[in-house]
């Protein structure tokens, strides 16, 4: 007569073997760069080319988490199909009934806890690094949002009491340009003049809400790739929310210094763009253009007091 424990042991051995195989597969995958795997598999839905150091770290976390989820998924799916095939009905004889199996229950409890702990650990590390603020950023930009446009104030220091040395205000006819350098720590200090907006450049792989009142949402990025990238408001803020756009222009530190120097001397944003080598329509936004909304009203065109 076969005891229940002797029947259960082979099952546990097989389950343990599957667990070891899954762990080995995970270890094999972890030996490859998440970026390489993500690029080969299309980024699993995320943009594959972030433009900040923080974006690369978040991309790595996303790819690694997705790979871990797929490994767990294949392991669970394998167990399901194995049970379906192994224990399919073959006659009227009732299979051996097991009330509990302690090794299996320990496996089912410990494994998810370990997976969650590892994911939490790396998420906390990346999130802390993304939210980290330096003592002395290289440049500070005050982002002022209002219905339905943007104003970017270049400041001489962090904090609400700093002075604005140059500013760029969007209008109905002109998309505002936010010109910034590569390789420098850029601090953004966001504030809204009316309702909640959201500052979003898709290539940064994250966005930050812009709150009204005395709440200033502050974060830093280090841009590492030149180019022009569309920016949007990602928080429903009213009738013309969809038209609330801007353009991020990333240039070399030398060209940025020339741009800022021209702005400090009173040049318009388009003239300052011309001073650093952009000509014709390149002095305006190239990733997007104003919409013909046929709207009238002071709220869109009214300049905002710098630093207020």
From TrEMBL:
Which segments cross the bilayer?
61-85, 106-124
- Cofactor notes: Binds a copper A center.
The subcellular localization recorded is:
Cell membrane; Membrane
Gene Ontology molecular function, alphabetical: copper ion binding; cytochrome-c oxidase activity; oxidoreductase activity
Q: How does it sit in the membrane?
A: Multi-pass membrane protein
The source's domain of life comes to: Bacteria
Q: Cross-referenced InterPro entries, in alphabetical order?
A: CcO_II (IPR045187), CcO_II-like_C (IPR002429), Copper_CuA (IPR001505), Cupredoxin (IPR008972), Cyt_c_oxidase_su2 (IPR014222), Cyt_c_oxidase_su2_TM_dom (IPR011759), Cyt_c_oxidase_su2_TM_sf (IPR036257)
Q: Which PANTHER family match?
A: CYTOCHROME C OXIDASE SUBUNIT 2, CYTOCHROME C OXIDASE, SUBUNIT II
Return the similarity comment: Belongs to the cytochrome c oxidase subunit 2 family.
Official protein name in the record: Cytochrome c oxidase subunit 2
Species of the source: Couchioplanes caeruleus subsp. caeruleus
